[in-house]
Amino acid sequence: MRILYICGDHGIPAFGRKGASTHMREMIASFRKLGHEVMLASADPGGDRRPDEQDIPTVKLPAPTSRLLGFDGRYLLANRLARGTLRRAAHSFRPDAIYERFALYFAAGDWLARKYAIPRILEVNALLSEEQRDRLHYPQWALKTELNVIRRAEAIASISRYMIEELARRGIDTSNARPFSMAVNPDRFLPAPDPEVRREQLGWTGGEIVLGYVGSMNVYHQADWFMDLAEKMLRRGEDRVRFLIVGGSATKVEKHRGRLVRWVDQGRVHFTGSVPQSELGGWISAMDAVLIPGASPQSTPTKIFESAAVGRPIILPATEPIREICGGDAPYLFPPQDFSAFEARVRNFLSAPESFHQPARRLQQRVLSDYTWDRHAAQLAEWLQALKQARQRG
């Protein structure tokens, strides 16, 4: 099957290091592994391609940059211009199906699917009119447009059951919606790298306990809480603990590093900044536990699955999507937005780390069994094929 993968979001580099980028890259890789041909149409096809990604045919969608247009104007113009680009891509690639990541104000994918009668799944990970409200001049218009685009979708792949329920609350018919969470490619993380390699690089060779943070430091992940906890413990002189922070833009890293610079200079805190995905498993392996202070209420951070695949204990908030992944109550979950509970879970780990190992193994098994990109891609490709056959019959 020939699949046209569309992403009209200007803020997601297709081959970048964000969780959203990982989502796109791994879905495309898994579709291709299954034998499907994929063409990518992206507003930002940038990033650092792996060798296996060099031959992915890619079309750049228009992404106006003029500040005079405003955020809404840039996306509205991009949507209008995208029709011509997608029409040409469809003529050259002749797709059997479309898989599209929803982007604000972007209705060109729906237009293309209807014009050429191509089956299409729309991936909805958030209500972007709310997520990006601070950047919008016309938030109510954006919401109305957003809901109309989603409402017209033939099929919806949503990030969680919680998100599907939210769409239903907004009046969307969700009988054609199915949940597909974030996931992991085990081949990129297993076998788990030797943790001592990175520890020796950092000079942590005396049996230290390493607490780690992995992520882009977006607002949902509440990186401030990790830094608050680190500063609190370091000021108390808890000498056996080290803090390893992986990911984040240069601006965000500098902001947080400034708070902890005293201990950075002492070698007790280390910021890596953004790292290639090929190095991520090694950094996660160097951690004794991965701390995830916050998460979006409708989704699950990619780093949960990657950290679980490596087998590391994770301490994370008990949002509805996360409880679904973890199978209910677990000793590593804490009530969302409760810093005291977050700190208490970390202290539980420090006092009895062995009590977290068996739950971590159970989560690892669950993730490797049910939450891999290959599994998601196979189910989605089967769904696209069924939509195509239904069109042919009808």
Structure commentary:
By secondary structure, the protein is an alpha/beta fold. It folds into two domains: 2-183 and 373-393, Rossmann fold (3-Layer(aba) Sandwich), CATH 3.40.50; 187-370, Rossmann fold, CATH 3.40.50.2000. Helices cover 47% and strands 15% of the residues. It has helices at residues 19-33, 70-93, 108-116, 128-131, 139-151, 161-169, 195-202, 223-235, 250-265, 277-285, 302-310, 320-326, 339-351, 354-370, 373-393; strands spanning 2-7, 37-42, 58-60, 97-101, 120-124, 155-158, 177-179, 209-214, 241-246, 269-273, 289-291, 314-317, 333-334. The strands form two sheets. Strands 3-2-1-4-5-6-7 form a seven-stranded parallel β-sheet, sandwiched between helices. Strands 10-9-8-11-12-13 form a six-stranded parallel β-sheet, sandwiched between helices. The protein starts with a strand and ends with a helix.
